[in-house]
Amino acid sequence: MAVYTSDVPITKADITGPGEGAWWCLGCGDFGVNSAFQDVVMNLVNEHSVPLENIFALSGIGCSSKEPEMLKVNAYQGQHGRSLPVAIGVAIANPGLKVIDFGGDGDTYAIGMEHFMHSIIRNVNVTLIIMNNQVYGLTKGQAAPTAHTGLRTPSTPNGKQGRSVNPLRLAVAAGAAFVGRGVSWQRRELGELINKAINTNGFSLVDVFSPCVTYHREPGARGSGPIYDWYRKNYVMDIREAWDNMRDQVFTEEEKATLPTQYDPSSPDAALHGLHLISEAAKIGREVTGLLLVDETQPTMAQNVGVSADSAPALLDISLGRNMDGYKTLLAEMR
Asked: Which pTM does this prediction carry?
């Protein structure tokens, strides 16, 4: 892997992998996520002097999990829903790395749900980017855990029944350091959100609405243009819009008198406010987007186990010869 300096800035061509353009359907929202993330990588390397070799991308199985193949960075592709345990290992073995895990709503919020929740609880310093399209795109469009009520798919021909998984609500309740949601058709804003997440100390969730133009079908909305229009007009609501328009339903007059004019994701009350707005928006069939929460007050998993970039386990000399006395002492203490 080449080394880049301020005199030799990295370009998009330098980080574009062999999978570029080969995997996703024409118009797929995942292209927007890939483009935004490439902008983030260039910013980290060129503006913040992060060595390219210190950026590590992981994924499981699914349409979203093709992302590492689109990049020229250190990467790992694992099993369906099981990339987060590997991400935890990477982050703890070498806390000096920027660890980014890519997943899908079917990949992470179904078979990978236990890893999702415990990664948040442990507050491992990993950024999880989810390409959320409400369906299992790789296996012909069955309903994913985030599919909205009433969505018709091959596995729900009469419409999805019951509640959907709300990852933002789960992440806020479990104590994530960063919780945000972007949309794939707003590349610049999504890149800014991902950049903030990666530079947050602790577990960061960036859920991204990334429409499936092939299998997500709404009445009168099928294909690239119409399905994006459906999201814009019928589904998404920016957290700032929710803050302005829903305070009357969520808060009492006494509470409103103490609220800031604009939504503040770093406020001590942001978690509670965010949960209220998520619930209120859901009553009218909307999902909030934007930056909901930033809270770096809790120690990370690396801090709790006593490792850091300066004392990375992966970089320690664990050879038998150099550590024989220490091994003998340890074995003696265990007898």
From this structure: 0.92
